[in-house]
Amino acid sequence: MRVVSERIGLETRGEVDILDITGEVQSIVKRSGTEKGIAVVFVPGSTAAVTTIEYEPGLLTDLPSTLERLAPRNATYEHEKRLHDGNGHSHVRASLLGPSLTIPIKDGKLTLGTWQQVVLVELDARSRSRELVVQILGE
């Protein structure tokens, strides 16, 4: 079994910026030469998440509005009482979505659904520089 690790550097606009990273992840799979296995995509940090979505305008509006209902920006967060950094909601939202995603690889390609893309969701209250880790395991 072969293990290949690469990184993807991104700049985000902050506050629920949703970036389609499917092409970058598939390019790493292709460069790795892996025909079957898994791809793990991980974002270090506690205010961003990795998930899948149909990357279209309606859902790009629906996801942020759903997150606002689940963990409202203007609610009281103990994190902010301690650190006063204005991103308590960002940490909660990131915990709900999660920092990583595992995708099977078959015939050298990510096995995603027709309308399914891999996305980074920036949840911090400010723009950020992110470096995602993509690790390919397989043969």
What's the topology here?
Elements: E1 2-11, E2 17-20, H1 22-32, E3 36-42, E4 48-53, H2 57-70, H3 78-83, H4 88-97, E5 100-106, E6 109-110, E7 117-122, E8 129-138
Antiparallel strand pairs: 1-8, 2-7, 3-5, 3-8, 4-7, 5-6
Entry keywords:
139 residues, Jelly Rolls, five-stranded antiparallel sheet, 8 strands, 37% strand, elongated
Structural overview:
With 139 residues, the protein is of the alpha+beta class. The chain is built from four helices and eight strands. It has one domain: Jelly Rolls, CATH 2.60.120.460. A hairpin with a 2-residue loop joins β5 (100-106) and β6. The mean pLDDT is 97. The strands form two sheets. The protein has a five-stranded antiparallel sheet with strand order 1-8-3-5-6, with helices on one face. A three-stranded antiparallel sheet has the order 2-7-4. 31% of the residues are buried.
